[in-house]
Sequence to fold (330 residues):
Amino acid sequence: MERLGPGPWTLAEVRAEGWTTKHIRQAVAEGRLVRPRRGSLALPDAGRSGSVEDLPRLRRRAEVVLTRYAGAVVSHETAARLHGLWLPRVASSDIHLISPRKPDRVEVGVRVHGSRLPRGQIVDLDGVPVTSVARSAVDVARGRSIEDAVVVLDSAARLLAAEAGAELTGLRHDLSLRAACTEGARSELWAAYRAVRRWPFTVVVRTAIPLLDPASESPLESRSRVRILSSELPAPRTAVPVVGASGTTYYADFVWDGWKVIGEADGTSKYGQDPDTVRARLRAERRRQRDLEDAGWAVVRWESTEPGRAMLQRIRRALAHGGWNPVSLG
Fold:
């Protein structure tokens, strides 16, 4: 499953990995997979580095808390986790609610956000009323850095695309499909933004929505894209096909065609978990890189543990080797 990234995935994507309906139902019953939305699946800890509890337990806690707050809706980080969105920071164990009947307050284990909520931004998630994917993402993105905001908005766009029936492989291989899904996600996120546009800390949301990409495979890829676009480097194409010397077509995270440079964000789950899977995928990746280099491409890689400036410097050197001159280009 690691090959698909942290999720969520469509049922078709999971079945393409060899999972039968029986296997999927058993995994959900045992808590090894969760259903953040109808027709989609995810790992219990998808996108939640350092989370403090699993999703079934979180859902049960939210249900109990809601019995004490009539008319309240699960929101913010709690709703984002239940939907399976990527969270940019370690989440606390507090249950977040939006309540039209109570002012903002913090109680033991509960954070109440007093506000009216448009009915169209409330959804039923296995019997629990929660804010919609778009509203949850906007609420989490408010007040964050631009990188953090894009991380959560990218995952929201990816989930919205999955709900529309678009698989991740399709988003990365079909540029017209990606454009349509990007436009659809932006439309929903702009609607959620307009409901809070006069609130504090929303400027970053307005800045981040135009930058989202539903084809992003990981938080590292999302962060990398923002860092690159915020630098003096030329803008790359993202998640596009490149051809190796053998004639094989591959898909690269970032591509600078004019300078024959490919950038790859190597997230922690890219090569799997068990040793055999890791070794097999590393061998395949080395063959892929040799094939691309034989075709004249320079391949630059970076990991999540590296400082952003190191990543940018490595890309800068590769582009300069390919003939890029930032001075002459202005």
Observations:
- Residues 46-52 have pLDDT under 50 and may be disordered.
- Residues 175-194 form the longest helix (20 residues).
- The two ends are 44 Å apart (CA to CA).
- Residues 80 and 136 are 6 Å apart (CA to CA).
